[in-house]
Amino acid sequence: MSKKRALRIASYNINGINSRLPVLLRWLEEIRPDVVGLQELKCTDEAFPAKDIEALGYSAIWHGQKSWNGVAILSRVGEPVETGRGLPGGPDDVQSRYIEAAVCGILIANLYLPNGNPWPGPKFDYKLAWMDRLQAHARHLLDSGLPSMLMGDFNVIPTELDVYKPERWAKDALFSPQARAKFAELVDQGWTDAIRKLHPGERIYTFWHYWRNSFQRDAGIRIDHFLLSPPLVKKLKAAGVDREPRGWEKTSDHAPTWVELAV
Domain count of the chain? Predict the structure, then answer.
């Protein structure tokens, strides 16, 4: 019999993959996550640094867009088998925010949810409409019974526990009552927030602004999430944030978030 091992799956908003490539490659080499979802590539499909990533042993699929958005899934435990590109329900939506693949028997949905600022306004309306589409597709994934996860930068601060000073975010779309309510509705479909499952009362952040020494003061927010379907919750062994890369030179304003599953 083969022994079970922990599969480490990470989510990382890289905030420009080519400008942060040294940071990404260093992190991949040092931590060696098995599967990675990247968000905010900010590059076209042609400009994706596939060769640099493949040189570290990772296969990759990606969905790019010039200057904005962009998502990718990397794997060193088998090729990611793409099952979706673009969030269903928006035939006219040209923003590259969603990619889905099967890896190691798990259906992984990697997403970069719209920011929504300024609020109120058209960008906020787009955010809420995108969340409605996400709910509809997430229900489909749950109904399939397949081991599934939604991961990525959700651009939603779920509760006051997830923000350094709630009053400073009161007028931000990320902490708006509407976005928080829709996130709660999504979770209530039957998903489990992996970080909160294992760390119910801890202040854990995944994003810190570049200004005012936010990272040094730990004045952060938690907007990068892993939502697990019931079959995966049983396999959840650990979850956390790799804070160290956030302190590196020319780094992203996010830190990698991860879960470990018994497989």
Answer: 1
d(CA 54, CA 69): 22
Confirm if 101 and 127 have CB atoms less than 8 A apart.
no
Catalytic one of 12, 58, 98, 153? 153
Residue 218 known to be catalytic:
no
Report the CATH number that the domain containing residue 232 is assigned in CATH: 3.60.10.10
The boundaries of the domain holding residue 250 are: 6-262
- Which residue is catalytic, options 12, 58, 98, 112? 112
Show pLDDT as tens, one digit a residue, over the chain (263 residues). Answer: 445 689 999 999 999 999 999 999 999 999 999 999 999 999 999 999 999 999 999 999 999 999 999 999 999 999 999 999 999 999 899 999 999 999 999 999 999 999 999 999 999 999 999 999 999 999 999 999 999 999 999 999 999 999 999 999 999 999 999 999 999 999 999 999 999 999 999 999 999 999 999 999 999 999 999 999 999 999 999 999 999 999 999 999 999 999 999 98
What whole-number distance in Å separates Cα of residue 11 and Cα of residue 73? 9
